[in-house]
Amino acid sequence: MKTDHTQPLEYSTEQNNLNILGFWIFLGAEIMLFGTLFASYFTLVDRTGGGPSGAEIFEITPVMFETFLLLTSSFTIGLGVHAMRLLNKKATLVFFGITLLLGLAFLGFEVFEFFTYVEEGAALQTSAFTSILLTTLGTHGAHVTFGLFWGIAIMMQIKQRGLTPETANKSFIFSLYWHFLDVVWIFIFSFVYLKGMM
Amino acid sequence: MDFFDRFAIPHPSPVIYAAMVAITLTVIAIVAGITYTKKWGYLWREWLTTVDHKRIGMMYLVSALLMLFRGGADAIMMRAQTALPENTLLDSQHYNEIFTTHGVVMIIFMAMAFIMALMNFVVPLQIGARDVAFPRLNALSFWLYFWGAMLFNISFVIGGSPDAGWTSYFPLAGNEFSQSVGTNYYMIAIQIAGLGTLITGINFIVTILKMRAPGMTLMKMPMFTWSALITNLIIAFAFPVLTVALAMGTMDRLFGTNFFTTTNGGMDMLWANLFWVWGHPEVYILILPAFGIYSEIIPTFARRNLYGYKSMVASIVLISVLSFVVWVHHFFTMGQGAMVNSIFSITTMAIAIPTGIKIFNWLFTLWKGKITITVPMLYSIGFIPIFTIGGVTGVMLGMSAADYQYHNTMFLVAHFHLVIIPGVVFAMLAGLTYWWPKMFGFMLNERIGKWAFWFISIGTCVAFFPMFISGLDGQARRMYTYSEATGFGIWNMLSFAGALMLAAGFVLIVYNIYYSTRYASRDISSDPWDARSLEWATHTPVPDYNFAITPQVDSSEAFWDSKKNGHTLYKGKYKEIHMPSNSGVPFIMSAIFFVFGFAMVFSIWILAIVALLGIFACLIHRSFEQDHGYHIPVEEIKETEETLGGAKQ
Questions:
Q1: Do A28 and B274 touch (CB under 8 A)?
Q2: Is residue B247 a contact partner of residue A34, using CB atoms and an 8 Å limit?
Q3: B364: Cβ–Cβ under 8 A, 6 or more apart, which residues?
Q4: pLDDT at B646 > cutoff 60
Q5: Which fold has domain B2-643?
Q6: Which residues in B lie closer than 8 A to residue A131 (C-beta atoms)?
Q7: pLDDT grade, residue A4 (50/70/90)?
Q8: Average pLDDT, stretch B256-270?
């Protein structure tokens, strides 16, 4: 494998470049996936059947916590990638670890939020609105959950193998994924919660 | 025994029992055959674990041909049932299942697989690459498709086939009206295969954008590669919509959600919209590669370069954009206002413009060409008039006011078969015949091939032209029988005759493969058609590494230039070649997907969870695996090149 030392590690081989472009296209497909969910959400948002509406169940406090946690984790993974470019293995691991912990805390709040909804009579089966609400949030949450396991696997590899072109490539791609989930969350925060509470 | 009741067929018939026996016997025969000839090791090492795009292409090809016969058997049964008024060959339930599986199998498991077969084999060769960007993902794509197709195909012997039409409109496809597990199969099998398709989409976009031979700018790519690029872009942006729609449908059926129900706020039209937001681009996913194939074959056999290269590219791009903004024309009668219908009418008719440009470009390529009539050329020339008839009737259907007359009649069935058969099937058969020598090292017999062409093209006309008339007379599609007084009898009998001709044509194609395998000469050159693009510039059979030296390109027909205009394709010396290693993980992981899908279909949750953990175990294994592939040394390259008929440089 040829290594190009003028480039950052994650771009240094041919295959790494292919991986990164492929992942960007995958994110394009993910935009379509979440776009479809949002379009369905806007279609079904007022079809509450006999169940509650968004204004009746949304609470700003846990949502603010979730937003704060996820946005911060996007910042820390940025620091992680920066540390990786400086070839500082320890700092990279620390920042990735903080990122994953923040993600885990986010998930904790989200699970708590879901239990509250079900208690308040907004279960998955209640109405078209609750179905699409919980599916949209759940799809995002499932992505974060998947990200946690993926992130742990990458951290273990950095620990064992150090910062090589492969591990750097994986870390960088993971950071793209994590930032993307943050962007999706901003849309959820604005157009699901804030709009629903107004 | 309650547990096992769910696997029973809800509407059994002797045909289905016969099919069960036949399937069991075939499986036993295959397993016994492989064991007897001691081929398990060979099968595993050379095929099940391969990541070579050429072999994956061949496996797609075999699967597509098998699915063609599965879907074709459904078609013959449908035409036989409706050939006579008040026929009782099939009951209504069986008929519903057959038109559903015919549609799904032909579109998702036959046409898509056929396209993937040719794209996999040809595209990396046409751009002078060693393989695709992600060889292992490519294997995963194939096996996901394969196991998805297997899951769908066991439905008719275990639990019952889907019966809500290939469009599976809700509320018909909901639990209330489709109680058997059939529609679960539909939702989950297509989901699994669709995942494979999406991965292929990403893989080929990266391959084409990043791995072209030096000098091959975008506007110097062969037209088939152009059409593959645009097709894969459509795949990457259309398939996620299907993913979401199928997930919602699955949840409605398995978890009692209310997306498409008629109670608690559910909206059945949301399914129709999401389905066709994917479904219409899907039509162009099928047709654009076909256009690409014709654009390769027509210049080759007209001995002229393609007329209007730039306008060909522009029209593919325009079609791909328009394909996303016409979906409502599939349901003009289902409750939108006149305003919405008018807008979608206009966008629909606009597609005729770029398509027309392409038709004229092919005609101008033929104009004053030195035409040789070979089998691929026959299909290409036959395609133009039949496709135009299908296309023009599509414009009729696209006029929303008039559509109220045509909607849901046999007129529609005639229209889409007359675009899809000459558009996709003719192209695939043309492409198959054209690239066959590159794939297998011998040519298909021209004489049998021409007979097959005439059976298929005349059969297509005889089978589908009468449907225009019976449709305008009021025969609804998907109607399992009709009374003699309607007068539909004669037209349906004609269609049945046409269907038999088509079947005879396909049998001839299989016979041709058998005959040519046995008798055709193996002594052919690496360029038997005197063709123009890079896939013909390497040896036949193509070595593992495709090109010993990466070719240099400075026009869209680099190989032609190297033959006629003194262009040097291969500069430099042999260098060590890096190759990806084989892997069994894609096969195993996809087989676990099959188990997962089966468990979901029958709501066996524990098995589903175990399978899901298995899938994750495969992902983790892949993440931690260190695989740097292997290198082919210069000595070995030299040896291979010499045995294959001398160094190509």
A1: no
A2: no
A3: B307, B308
A4: no
A5: Cytochrome C Oxidase; Chain A (1.20.210)
A6: 248, 251, 257-259, 266
A7: confident
A8: 93
